[in-house]
Write a structure and sequence with these properties.
mainly alpha, 338 residues, two-stranded antiparallel ribbon, transmembrane helix
Length: 338
C-alpha cells in the first residue's frame, strides 16, 4: 500500500506492520519481566509506579537504578547487533556473513585487550579500543578480500582466517598480561550486562540512535546491492562507496556493544535470518532484524539471570549455547542446498 507524505513516499505492507507490532509487544513484555523478576519479585503495578516521582525509595532504587539499565541495554544492544548482522549478511549474500563469524567481535576484543595492556582502564579508553579494533579488523578483512570488487564468500573465508589469528593473539595477550588484567579481560570477554548503569548505556544508546536514523538510506542501498553491482549502479548507487559506508556502520554498531558488554555472539548471525522468515521477505530487513535482535538478547539475558538458582550466567554464555545449535542447523541446511 503506497503512502505519500509531501516529497516522501512509503510502501506499507500489512504483514510487516503486524510483525513489527508483534515483535515490539514481545519486547515490551520481556522488558516488564526483566524489571519484575529478581531476588525480590516486584508486581507490575509497582514497577510502573517506580518511575513516578512519588514512588517508594526502595522500589525506585531496585527498578530504576539497578534493573532498568540492564533490561534496556539488552534490548538496545540486541537491536544494534541485529542491524549489524543484516548489513553484513546483505553485503555477503550469505547467512554466515555476520560480524561474529568474520572476526569483527574478535577484533574489537583485541582492541580492548591492547588498551588494557597499555594501562587504559576507563570506559572511554575501552570503548575507543573496541571501536578502533573493530574498524582495523574490518579494514584488514576488506583489503584482503577485495579483488576488483567485494565478493561475499571470499569476505567470509578471509574473515574466518583473520578471526582465528586474532583469537590466538588474544589468548597470548591474556597469558602475558598481569593477573588482574587477565581476570578483567576474561570476565569482560565472556559477554556480560552485569553491573551496567545508565552512564554506560548512554553513549551506546545515543550513538546507536544516530546510526539507526540512517536506516532508510541503508535499506535502500542494501536492496539495490542485493540486485547486483551493475543493477545498483544503474539505480544511481555508487557501489563501492555504499559498501564502505555500510561496513563502517555495521562495525561501529557491533564495536559499541562490544565496548560495553564484551563480545556477544550469534545475535547478529540469527536475527536477520529469523526476521526474513517472519516477514517472508526476499531481502534483508535491518528494521526487522533489529526487532528480532531485541527479543533474542532480551530473552537470553532473562535466561542468564534466572536459569541457575542462586547464580547468574554471562549473557554471552547463553547466546553461545543457543547460537551454537542454530549454527549447526544452518550449516546442515546450507550443506544440503549445496
Amino acid at each position: 500500500m503506497p503512502v505519500r507524505i509531501g516529497p516522501w513516499s512509503l510502501l506499507l505492507r500489512p504483514r510487516l506492520i503486524v510483525t513489527s507490532a508483534g515483535l515490539l509487544g514481545l519486547a515490551a513484555g520481556i522488558l516488564l519481566l526483566s524489571l519484575c523478576l529478581g531476588d525480590t519479585t516486584i508486581p507490575p503495578e509497582h514497577v510502573v509506579r517506580a518511575f513516578t516521582p512519588d514512588a517508594p525509595r526502595l522500589d525506585r532504587m531496585v527498578v530504576v537504578e539497578w534493573r532498568a539499565p540492564r533490561a534496556v541495554a539488552a534490548l538496545v544492544f540486541g537491536a544494534c547487533l541485529g542491524v549489524s548482522g543484516a548489513i553484513f549478511q546483505s553485503l555477503t549474500d550469505n547467512p554466515l556473513g555476520s560480524p561474529d563469524v568474520i572476526g569483527l567481535n574478535t577484533g574489537a576484543f583485541s582492541g580492548v585487550l591492547v588498551v588494557m595492556l597499555l594501562g587504559g582502564a576507563g570506559a572511554g579508553a575501552i570503548a575507543g579500543g573496541a571501536v578502533l579494533g573493530g574498524l582495523l579488523t574490518a579494514g584488514l578483512v576488506y583489503a584482503l578480500a577485495y579483488r576488483g570488487g567485494l565478493q561475499g564468500f571470499r569476505l567470509i573465508i578471509v574473515g574466518i582466517a583473520v578471526s582465528a589469528m586474532l583469537a590466538s593473539a588474544n589468548t597470548w595477550f591474556s597469558v602475558k598480561a598481569a593477573l588482574d588484567v587477565s581476570m578483567q579481560a576474561a570476565v569482560w570477554g565472556a559477554g556480560t550486562l552485569t553491573g551496567l548503569r545508565w552512564g554506560g548505556l548512554a553513549a551506546v544508546g545515543m550513538g546507536g540512535a544516530l546510526l539507526l536514523l540512517t536506516l532508510p538510506w541503508l535499506s535502500r542501498w542494501m536492496r539495490a546491492l542485493e540486485l547486483g553491482d551493475d543493477t545498483a549502479a544503474v539505480l544511481g548507487v555508487r557501489t563501492e562507496v555504499a559498501k564502505a559506508v555500510l561496513v563502517v556502520v555495521g562495525v561501529v554498531l557491533t564495536s559499541m556493544v562490544t565496548a560495553v558488554a564484551g563480545p556477544i555472539a550469534f545475535i547478529a548471525l540469527a536475527a536477520p535470518q529469523i526476521a526474513r522468515r517472519l516477514r517472508r521477505s526476499g531481502s534483508f530487513d535491518p528494521i526487522g532484524s533489529g526487532l528480532v535482535g531485541m527479543l533474542l538478547l532480551g530473552g537470553a539475558d532473562l535466561i542468564a539471570q534466572h536459569a541457575v538458582p542462586g547464580g547468574r550466567l554471562p549473557v554471552g554464555a547463553v547466546t553461545v549455547c543457543i547460537g551454537g545449535g542454530y549454527l549447526v542447523w544452518l550449516l546442515l541446511r546450507e550443506g544440503r542446498r549445496a
